[in-house]
Specification:
Strand order of the largest sheet: 5-6-7
Number of strands: 7
Radius of gyration: 32 Å
Distance between the termini: 37 Å
Number of helices: 8
Helix content: 55-70%
Order of helices and strands: HEEEEHEEEHHHHHH
Strand content: 5-15%
Largest sheet: 3 strands, antiparallel
């Protein structure tokens, strides 16, 4: 157990180190300027075989470019804008951000340098926004990305973020240790209680109820994995949110977890009646299988005389009958499967 925890701790610190190293990579090639004059070239729509391209700034989506501009396709515009913005980040130029209206669209500049232009062709026709609203939203998202890049350039901030992630890792490992210890303490006791209850119920002829005792064991296992999974997701989301570059991943991971839990809860509520029917079928099948095994054990021991079953073929006959019973149960459960 200690070796397993040590391996998990090593993997955890490796992931944190990889995250910090990835976050510190902000050096990029210098920007490539557009050579065409905005007064002489008009923007045009993207060709049918060209797809819109998303501009990301410091791992955050800022705007979707859809139209051609100065002969450049949306993907080329995104590449050029990314090079300009990364060059500004490399030179530690994070503002001010300004917009200017021109005949072709609205330019967005950072520190007096134009980084991109939003054209009417870039506006999403289904969003209900006009060119000015799209440019304002782009300016706001660009400001957020540049502020995160500015924060990322602080070594002191990265050290504090690494310490926070390390503390969260220690808390998660402590939780894992407690879970493993608790599970090891409770499991044999639950199994003992389960076996005792099943034996007493079987002796009283309540074979179907005796099969229900397995719920205690499986409930403990389910609780263990649910708590472990929730702790793992929360630790990973918190660690990713500590660093500006990976913060969107942490937010998305936590949002996806909450959405997944909501969908699972909704699905369970809607399928609960069917699940109960399936559970009843499984328990009834297990009870029938237990009776079949008891019957064939009696035949094999000579306590029960059956003319159509030979003692030498008892085990083979028992397996065949059990397989047929489970196949019949699966056929009955099939209409109720989610």
């Amino acid at each position: 157990m200690n070796t397993r925890i040590f391996r998990l701790a090593s993997l955890t610190w490796f992931l944190i180190g990889l995250t910090v190293a990835r976050c510190a990579e902000t050096n990029v090639p210098p920007a490539v300027a557009e050579t065409q004059s905005p007064q002489t070239v008009r923007p045009g729509p993207a060709a049918p075989n060209e797809e819109p391209a998303v501009l990301h700034v410091f791992n955050r989506p800022v705007v979707i470019l859809r139209a051609r501009l100065f002969g450049g396709a949306p993907r080329e515009r995104v590449r050029a804008a990314t090079e300009r913005i990364n060059s500004l980040i490399h030179r530690k130029v994070f503002g001010p951000i300004e917009t200017q209206r021109r005949a072709e669209g609205i330019t967005i500049s950072v520190g007096g340098e134009i980084v991109m232009m939003i054209t009417p062709g870039d506006v999403d026709p289904f969003s209900g926004k006009d060119l000015e609203a799209t440019a304002a939203e782009t300016e706001q998202l660009l400001s957020v990305g540049l502020n995160e890049a500015k924060t990322q350039s602080s070594v002191k901030y990265l050290v504090r973020a690494g310490l926070k992630a390390g503390a969260a890792t220690l808390v998660f490992l402590a939780l894992l240790f407690v879970l493993v210890r608790t599970n090891g303490f409770l499991r044999p006791r639950v199994l003992a209680i389960e076996g005792k209850a099943a034996k007493e119920l079987s002796q009283r002829g309540l074979i179907m109820l005796s099969q229900l005792t397995v719920i205690m064991h499986w409930g403990l296992r389910l609780l263990f994995w649910v708590v472990l999974g929730a702790g793992l997701f929360e630790w990973l989301a918190f660690s990713l949110r500590c660093f500006p570059y990976t913060r969107p991943w942490g937010d998305g991971l936590q949002g996806n977890l909450m959405g997944l839990l909501g969908r699972i809860t909704s699905a369970v509520v809607h399928t609960l009646p069917n699940l109960l029917i399936i559970a009843v079928i499984v328990l009834a099948t297990r009870a029938v299988v237990a009776l079949v095994r008891a019957f064939f054990r009696g035949v094999e021991a000579g306590r029960i005389a059956v003319p159509w079953v030979e003692v030498e073929a008892t085990r083979a006959t028992q397996r065949i009958v059990i397989v047929v019973i489970w196949l019949f149960a699966i056929v009955m459960m099939y209409p109720y499967l989610p």
